[in-house]
């Protein structure tokens, strides 16, 4: 599906450190611990490409991965990490904002929402930020394997309700489990089709 190597490119802490804007990019944003790094690993079929961890705030940089010759996957620092120092949070927020609003090659921003929890206040902040950006954003629900059918349906409905207040959002959501593989093929196909 993606010809060429899949590999870590670099981690950056400021806009000036970003790699050349010469590839189509998709990024993964979401609360700390929502499963961004795990999703990148599942998508690429590489177990330890992005470092996944139980410690919230594990990914503190913008991490770039090459997906074949023509695409970048971008793992963003998680937000809403309660124990993070205020100064760090402010720095992350500023960088996220600059990135989401100012990266010309960014073709889609996937906003990850935990299927157990639905859209929280901190997620609303990101959705509002994305409303004002030029990039198409789409919700990916994570950790679907952790909930029963009832919770799943209720939280999908809650997310759809929240998205109705963000008309710029892509109307379809993708329900995934990096653990069980649900939705991974669908997401891979979306990334492959973007131009
Ligand atoms: P930060 O880098 O801290 O922002 O976290 P992250 O969003 O990258 O989350 P990460 O991928 O590190 O996953 C956090 C925890 O959730 C890890 O213990 C993962 O193993 C677990 N996890 C991620 N995705 C899934 C999933 O689909 N199912 C289950 N059961 N666990 C998952
Ligand atoms: Mg991570």
TrEMBL record:
Pfam families: MMR_HSR1. GO terms for biological process: division septum assembly. Keywords: Cell cycle, Cell division, GTP-binding, Magnesium, Metal-binding, Nucleotide-binding, Septation. Its cofactor is Mg(2+). Residues 22-195 form the EngB-type G domain. One of its GO terms (molecular function) is metal ion binding. It comes from the Bacteria. Gene3D superfamilies: P-loop containing nucleotide triphosphate hydrolases. Belongs to the TRAFAC class TrmE-Era-EngA-EngB-Septin-like GTPase superfamily. EngB GTPase family. Necessary for normal cell division and for the maintenance of normal septation. This is Probable GTP-binding protein EngB. It comes from Fuscibacter oryzae. The gene is engB.
